[in-house]
Amino acid sequence: AQTVTQSQPEMSVQEAETVTLSCTYDTSENNYYLFWYKQPPSRQMILVIRQEAYKQQNATENRFSVNFQKAAKSFSLKISDSQLGDTAMYFCAFEDLGRLYFGRGTQLTVWP
Amino acid sequence: NAGVTQTPKFQVLKTGQSMTLQCAQDMNHNSMYWYRQDPGMGLRLIYYSASEGTTDKGEVPNGYNVSRLNKREFSLRLESAAPSQTSVYFCASSPRRLQGSDEKLFFGSGTQLSVL
Question: What is the pLDDT of residues A62-76, one digit of tens each?
């Protein structure tokens, strides 16, 4: 079974600062997709960013970027210039054989 | 522009009761999924349907059944609810099966189910 580990249950950051959320995963596959989803208090699941394993270049989406280390099976999310609206639960997810496997989440709080 | 619609949004059941959670998508997606979310556990896949007419078990299928009624609708049934099934249930869809593709999941807003 695939496993996704998020070792930080909670994190906090001051507005405008940068924060990095960690994620590691376990797989024997060579090509796969990795995702970060955001879940604000509204409970809606929102895709933040996606990375394909065979691509060397780290994905970026505006203030969000990843540090993908394939050999280490690490997929961290960096949020730059944090905003109050970034307060949410963040889930790392791994796609295998058409299924998404989620980590347990990191609750991020951005304070003024 | 509804996307993925789940009903009901909230439900309280007594142990042993049965109910069906409904999910419909209006995006002409082929693949649909049911997840449950428990505190501290992330989302876990219950069942999924890669295309109309097919269903497959996910990580935690015990106690559930599903029906892919047509391309739009994918229902989740609890035949005899148990307190362990208290959870938030999410339906999701994707244009085609995620495997090796550039697709993403579109999620509904969730159903909060409590089993007493």
Answer: 999 999 999 999 999
